[in-house]
TrEMBL record:
PANTHER family in alphabetical order: PTHR47328, RUTC FAMILY PROTEIN YOAB
Record-linked SUPFAM superfamilies: YjgF-like (SSF55298)
Upper taxonomic lineage: Bacteria, Pseudomonadati, Pseudomonadota, Gammaproteobacteria, Alteromonadales
Name of the featured protein: RidA family protein
CDD domains: YjgF_YER057c_UK114_like_2
The species this protein was found in: Pseudoalteromonas spongiae
Taxonomy, superkingdom: Bacteria
InterPro entries: RutC-like_sf, YjgF/YER057c/UK114, YoaB-like
Length: 117
């Protein structure tokens, strides 16, 4: 049994791979001063980078958990999400309202994916 950890620090690894399954730590936006659409897009851009680094892709996502500060942002967040997820490759997903680590953060996502063959 091999567990590969990437971008590891004291508190967490950004990527953990086990049995060709990729686990990403929670991703947030690049600029928390922006609105929900911009925060969602830059958060998903980070997911793309980590999936590529781990040998996976959007088409190989298995599940995603989206944490949103307030459900008032749900529709706008989903507009960005729906444009980002490849047609026919939507992961199992949960979306929950949650308190964020910093008050200016509006959205965070945690993704599990399979590595490409």
């Amino acid at each position: 049994m091999t567990i590969q950890r990437m971008q590891t620090k004291q508190r967490m690894s950004r990527i953990v791979i086990h049995n060709k399954t990729v686990y990403l730590c929670g991703q947030v936006c690049a600029d928390a001063t922006k609105g929900i659409k911009e925060q969602t897009q830059t958060m998903l851009d980070k997911v793309d980078e980590l999936l590529i680094e781990s040998g996976s892709s959007r088409e190989h996502m298995l599940s995603a958990t989206v944490y949103i500060k307030d459900m008032q942002y749900f529709k706008e967040m989903n507009e960005v999400w729906d444009a980002w997820v490849p047609q026919g490759h939507a992961p199992a997903r949960a979306c929950v309202e949650a308190a964020m680590a910093r008050p200016e953060l509006l959205v965070e996502v945690s993704v599990i994916a399979a590595q490409k063959d």
